[in-house]
Amino acid sequence: MRDLAARLTALDPDAGAALRVIAYFDRLTEGRAGLEAIVRGAAVLAGCPARLSDDHRRLHLRVHPDGTDATAAPADPAWMSAPVGDGSVLWLERPGPPGPVDAMILERAAGAARTVLDRTRIHPAALLDLVLDADAPEPSRLQAAARLGLTANSRVRAAALPGGKAHLMTETDPPLDPQARAGIGPAGPIAALPASYAEARTALRFTAEGTGRDPGPRVVHAEDLGGLALPAAVAEPVPDVQALTRVAATAPWALATLDAVAEAPSLRAAATALRVHHSTLQERLSHIDHVLGWDFRTPHGRLRLQLALALRRLTRSA
Amino acid sequence: MTTPIGPPPPFDPELAAALDVIGAHLPSSVTADMIQPMREGALTAVAGEPDLTRGGTFTVTRRAVPGPAGDPDVELLILTPHDADHPLPGIYHIHGGGMIVGDSTTGVDVLQDWATEVPSVIVSVEYRLAPEHPHPAPVEDCYAGLEWTAKHAAELGIDPSRLIVAGASAGGGLTAAVALLARDRGGPALAGQLLLCPMLDDRNDTPSTLQMAGRGVWDRTANDTGWTALLGPARGGPDVSPYAAPARATDLSGLPPAFIDVGSAETFRDEDVAYATRIWQAGGQAELHVWPGGFHGFDLLVPQAAISREARAARLRWLRRLLGA
User: Fold this and answer.
1) Does A181 touch chain B (CB under 8 A)?
2) Mean pLDDT, rounded, for B289-295
3) Helix or strand or coil: residue A182?
4) What domains, with CATH codes, occur in chain B?
5) Which chain B positions have a beta carbon within 8 Å of A68's beta carbon?
6) Is any Cβ of chain B less than 8 angstroms from the Cβ of A5?
7) What pTM value is reported for the model?
């Protein structure tokens, strides 16, 4: 009995062993066993480590056939696996393709795990809404955070993504996809997540597509905004933004050129960033000078330009 | 006793699932005609001879020592940690098997797990089995081996102030019995008694016994088979010695600290809980664990289950506290 796997393989793989596997996971489900017992069952019956991974829930269970837990290195795509649904995957740490008994273990264990996940109604999107909702009572928010795999002393930040989507990031989570467009709130305790998310949404308004027509950063950290965050509350039309709109209408490169000049430490660096010759940049700027209406080469004019560009993003996305 | 007896408590789901896979090999009820086939290994499929040296980490010695007066010698299996260089705690082990099966190697792998964590010398006794050798042969063999072990502690590398007795199932009952004998005969001073799901009460009529009839491992029929082998027609009658069935003892004072564990879904639940309770009532020390949904011997049959690992860890913690390792 120390080795259930050996007993199983001794049985006729097509009939006896499959029936025992079915009975095993049926009994776990009847007894309302938890996910760990199910993953352990897969490990014990297959005779190799098994794991359940679910990135949405920060859930990573890995169990040895002797029942002990272990930390998990990333899964090897060559291993046998079965989808549990909603982003969860059950793995047997052995290269495929699975034989009939392994296939049955994968299928039944994944089914049992799905039952647990459905029963406990852990829907990540709903939990996420809850932890970010300032109107929800704090105990509910903390409970939802725990079910998302956050521990009580986690320091976590909210990120606001386009389309009203949100994302949580702990210090140990992998960084956001560098291509993503996001406003990122400050890190803090779980209870402060609604505030972090509010700041993240403001930061998102300062992001841009990062294209010629919509130049600017794709990712903005709320902590880097400083006083720039204040105008977000007063989204009234500003004449300088209308000036930028006029500039943008004159040439496809006009807005990107101004953005580069505002962000780069020197005109030469701006030319490099734009991948144009210094003399080309000078020609473009003399063209823009007429339309913009103020000299952006002075310290004051540069600040005015930076602020106008930020306000433009703000009013455009508002 | 006015509470009506309900249905059997459910098995722990992990244990239940595993019992389904092994159930066909392990009948709940054991009858007298099954004793011989069981001794020949028909029900306990053990793959090969176990390596008692554990890859050279234990020195294995077998010693024939004097048995009870007028009886044959008793053989002791002695397992000493290989690198022992100072006196260690001693664990005197009495194996299980319903009084009718098993030998001195039965269950010693569990003790070797302990001795790996809490370095100790293991002495496991080869006692005579019922029904060929009814009471008092088994318990007197066990006691003779214990006396010899205590007298020869220095020779065995055992610190005599840290000698404990341990056993599971029928071995747990015999362990409780030798602790009573040691007290009553002024025998070896014991530092503790470790009673794992012990078989204590020949009357075989507690609510747990009735609840679990026909279910799990070692049911009421099996229990009757074991006790009848040991006691014959005296089983359940008025004249059973407490050294045969420690539940019969009227005085549980003056015993070494006890560790008792048992499953909630097994025959022995109520007699084991009662034994711990009576030790406390007598002013003694006992640690009692009732593991919910555990059947008899669950941690041996399904070692990987969460509850089995908890049960093993609890024993180790007690050993560490008691033996100061």
Assistant:
1) no
2) 97
3) strand
4) 13-22+59-323 (3.40.50.1820)
5) 309
6) no
7) 0.73
